[in-house]
Structures are given as structure tokens and as C-alpha cells.
Write a structure and sequence with these properties.
Shape: globular
Radius of gyration: 17 Å
Largest sheet: 6 strands, parallel
Structural class: alpha/beta
Length: 217
């Protein structure tokens, strides 16, 4: 191979550590970024992802127990395993959050996803040691929406700058809840940081021209 690329610095470090191979970081863009835009900063937080323990939807639900505002949560995505969907639904019921947390355990098409991202207050994405920033982070940024993540989320931290274009919380329900409430109370903050998230895309050169140029070099 003339060149080896990785989709994040985290992945480049792993390739080097486990295989002794040097890789250049080449951040992958989304297929059609122009589809994503901001309609409003609504009253709900959005997590668009397959539902699995490593994506930690249950931690997001637990955080909703500690919020003091009227913020809501929408979990949008199909569970990898039936047992996980049962566990998430049971947790919502046990914590008495059925009126504030919506879990739609199904596949969402692109149009539905665009509408949800365009109207949400912020994106929440809490993977455990993820290999990249995750497409939902990038989709939200194109719509000028903040991403809330955690300090142990891996590649997401290469995109999200705490207090600048998003929030990097300790992976505890209380820490997350405080940020959820802060965004709900201050829509101007959500908007200004969302614009910074969109700028971050250009700062990291996450676009198809950069990718094609690198691959053909």
C-alpha cells in the first residue's frame, strides 16, 4: 500500500500499537451534508444510534432522573439485541420517566433523522472508547447542534471541544444532567456553540475534496 489512513487519531494510535503500522488521519465526511440544517432548538435531547451497551443509552436515561428542567429525551435507533431493548424500556419505567423519555426501537430513515436533528436541542452521544467521532456527531454539527459526550468516549473527543462546540462530561448521571439543564435554560448558548460545532467541520477539513485528494495523491 502506498498510504494507510485511519478514521481518527485514536484509530491511528491503535493501528500503530497493535500492528506497528503508521497511518495518516483522514476524517470521513457524511454522504450528503447539505441535507442537515437547523429548524429550531427544541425541548428535547436526541440520541440517534443503534442501541447497545457500548453506546450507553442507559446512562443517558439515568441522567434524566437528575434533571431539574423540562428537558425531554428521544432515543432513536434499533437495539442490537432484544435483551437490550427490554433493559432500556424497563429502566425508563422503573425510574418513572415514561412521560419524558421516548425510546423508539426501530430503524430511522434519512428523512426522519434529518427532521429529528433539525428540531432537537442537542445531540447526545456517549460511546465507550469509540474509534471515531461517530456520524451522529457530524450530522448534528452540520445542523449547528451541540454534541454532549463523555471524557472516555474516544474519538468523539477529537471533534468535541468542551465548552466550545460541545460538552465533555464525566460519565456520571449527575454530570450529564447538569449540562442537559444548562442547554435547556440557555438556548442562546445551544445556538452559539452549535455554530461553533459547524465551524469545527471546516477546521478539521472534513469534506469530500480533502478525502479524494488524499486518496489520489
Amino acid at each position: 500500500a502506498r498510504n494507510v489512513f485511519a478514521n481518527s487519531q485514536v484509530m491511528a494510535e491503535r493501528v500503530h500499537r497493535y500492528n506497528g503500522i503508521q497511518a495518516s488521519v483522514l476524517y470521513p465526511p457524511i454522504e450528503a451534508p447539505e441535507r442537515f440544517g437547523c429548524t429550531e432548538y427544541g425541548d428535547f435531547l436526541l440520541c440517534v444510534s443503534r442501541v447497545t451497551p457500548m453506546k450507553r443509552q442507559r446512562l443517558i436515561v439515568e441522567a434524566m432522573c437528575h434533571v431539574k428542567t423540562g428537558v425531554r429525551l428521544v432515543l432513536a435507533g434499533a437495539a442490537d439485541y432484544f435483551q437490550e431493548s427490554v433493559a432500556v424500556n424497563r429502566l425508563i419505567e422503573e425510574l418513572g420517566l415514561s412521560d419524558r423519555v421516548t425510546f423508539e426501537n426501530r430503524w430511522f430513515d434519512e428523512r426522519e433523522k434529518e427532521d429529528l436533528i433539525g428540531t432537537c436541542l442537542a445531540n447526545v452521544y456517549l460511546p465507550e472508547s469509540e474509534d471515531s467521532y461517530g456520524y451522529s456527531t457530524l450530522e448534528a454539527a452540520h445542523a449547528a447542534k451541540v454534541t454532549v459526550t463523555t471524557t472516555d468516549s474516544g474519538g468523539v473527543l477529537e471533534f468535541v471541544q468542551d465548552g466550545v462546540n460541545g460538552f465533555c462530561c464525566e460519565p456520571t448521571p449527575e454530570s450529564l444532567a447538569a449540562v442537559f439543564d444548562r442547554l435547556y435554560r440557555d438556548r442562546n448558548l445551544a445556538s452559539s456553540m452549535g455554530v461553533a460545532a459547524r465551524r469545527r467541520i471546516a477546521e478539521l477539513n472534513i469534506d469530500w475534496s480533502t478525502v479524494v485528494e488524499a486518496l489520489l495523491r
